[in-house]
Amino acid sequence: MSGTYSVVMGDRGRLVVPAELRDRLHWATGSPLLLIETPHGVIMATRDQVKQLVRDGLQGVDLVGELLADRRKAAAAEDAA
Fold first, then answer.
1. pLDDT surpassing 80 at residue 13
2. pLDDT digits (tens, 9 = 90+) for 25-64
3. Is the pTM of this model over 0.85?
4. How far from 72 is each of 1, 62, 64, 76, CA to CA, in Å?
5. pLDDT of 65 above 60
6. Which residues are within 8 A (CB) of 22 and not within 5 positions of it... i.e. 6 or more apart?
7. How far is residue 48 from each of residues 18, 44, 52, measured CA to CA in Å?
8. Is 45 exposed, middle or buried (0-12, 13-18, 19+ CB in 10 A)?
9. Which H, E and C letters describe 41-73, residue by residue?
10. Helix, strand counts (H, E) of the chain
């Protein structure tokens, strides 16, 4: 499912996404794409793909629980002072 593709940046910064990859990802002419700069390189994806990446990264994380625990800890520290 994953692959490595070599592309060359053309004039005016244009990149050509290989047809095989465009077909597999269902990217058509005019498809809006996001370029996300990371410490490890650049990710090119659709908005829906980015949403799924974020959801996958947050899976199993209880952000609300962590926030409440931090607030309770801060409140207890204030009460002790």
1. yes
2. 999 999 999 999 999 999 999 999 999 988 888 787 788 8
3. no
4. 45, 15, 12, 6
5. yes
6. 28
7. 20, 12, 6
8. middle
9. EEEEECHHHHHHHHHHHHCCCCHHHHHHHHHHH
10. 3, 2
Q: Please report which confidence band the pLDDT of residue 2 belongs to, taking 50, 70 and 90 as the band edges.
A: low
The amino acid present at 70, given as its one-letter code, is D
Paired tokens of 30: 């005019």
For 18-27, write each residue's pLDDT tens digit. Answer: 999 999 999 9
User: What backbone torsions phi and psi does residue 60 show, to the nearest 5 degrees?
Assistant: 85, -5
N-term to C-term CA, the chain: 57
d(CA 72, CA 66): 10
What whole-number distance in Å separates Cα of residue 77 and Cα of residue 49? 42
